[in-house]
Structure formats: C-alpha cells, structure tokens
Amino acid sequence: PRRPRQPFQLRGRQRRIVVRDPSRLGSVFYDYDITFGLSDEEATLVLGGEVVLWSEQADGTVLDVRVWPRASAMAETLWSGNRDTSGKKRYAEATDRLNQWRYRMVGRGAVRC
Questions:
Q1: pLDDT tens column, 9-59
Q2: 105 in Cβ contact with 111 (< 8 Å)
Q3: Ranges for the Glycoside hydrolase family 20 catalytic domain (predicted)?
Q4: Would you list the domain boundaries of the chain?
Q5: What is the Cα–Cα distance from 22 to 85, expressed in whole angstroms?
Q6: Which long-range contacts (CB under 8 A, 24 or more apart) does 46-49 make?
Q7: Which residues, in sequence order, are CB contacts of 103 under 8 Å at separation 6+?
Q8: pLDDT tens for residues 61-83?
Q9: Does pTM surpass 0.70?
Q10: Is-contact 73 91, C-beta < 8 A?
C-alpha cells in the first residue's frame, strides 16, 4: 500500500510516477490506501477523499480523459474499499466495475482511453 504521508500526486514536485501504459493508470490510484498506518479506530474517522487535477497540467481538451479514469479508480477504493475480508486486494471485482464504467463513458464520448 502507498503511504499517505502527503497528498498523492501523479505528477508534481512532491512525487512523480511514470506510467508507461495508460491502462494501468487506474491501478496506481486503486492501490493507494488512504488508511495505511492508521489503527482500526483511526480508520473509522476517515470520511472520504478527493481527486484533483490542477489546471497547469490540463486544459479543456484533455480534462475528461485525465480526470475521470483517475477519479473513478479512487472512488472505487473509497466507496468499496480495495480489500476483501481476508485482506486481499479485490482487483477482479474492481476491474469489472471500472471496465463497465469505461465502456459507458467511451459510449458517451467523454473518455477516449
């Protein structure tokens, strides 16, 4: 799991991650564990998370392509959790849901990836 010591940034001065395969970008966000290092009691106090895209990194021509795949993967993690009751990652379940989402967005012309 990724340690949330500071806000997670895909690009920026604090952290840089190079993703050579755009289809794996969602897994970068899906793997982020917002409650890493917290006790069970502290983890229950986490109310949510946020995905942002700075305007310096994108303009209107690429906004949908960049923000929605990332936000959907993070939303999957925040809403469903990324582990089952035994502590194993739920990649198969998440992949199915994220693929269904992607097909809907491509059909609407919002995402070209």
A1: 444 444 444 444 445 555 666 667 777 788 899 988 988 888 877 777 777
A2: yes
A3: 38-81
A4: 22-107
A5: 30
A6: 48/78, 49/74, 49/77, 49/78
A7: none
A8: 777 777 877 788 778 777 777 67
A9: no
A10: no
